[in-house]
Amino acid sequence: MTKDDDPEAYIEAFEQTAIQTGLDRSQWGHQLGVLVIDEAQAAYRALSREEAQDYEAVKAAILYWLEISPKTYRQAFRACKLRENGKIRTSSESQTTTMARRTRAKGMHDALPRHHKAT
């Protein structure tokens, strides 16, 4: 796992790989704990030895520690806005669009670096 990996996607890939390779499910918790880094590893290390052997406990602890839950997905979804074409636009995209419009309206686009000029 790297810092750029989506933890849920990583865990899902881990599960698929563990199944395909025939890894004994009793080893999943330990193996996942060895592969994760940073905050996910901190979550694993906070578990007791007994909990660390329970894959579902390891998975739940990592997701909880990283604050990944249905609630965080709802919050992220609510922060999104629809584009004119009906597709979802994230709040950061919305902010960028708003800033570009303001810059154009104020005639400041010539002051922006060439790769940031509004079109």
Automatic annotation (TrEMBL):
Q: What segment(s) does the record annotate as region Disordered? A: 88-119
Q: Where is the composition biased (Polar residues)?
A: 88-100
| Protein name, as recorded | SCAN box domain-containing protein
Look up and give the organism this protein is from.
Answer: Alligator mississippiensis
State the taxonomy lineage: Eukaryota, Metazoa, Chordata, Craniata, Vertebrata
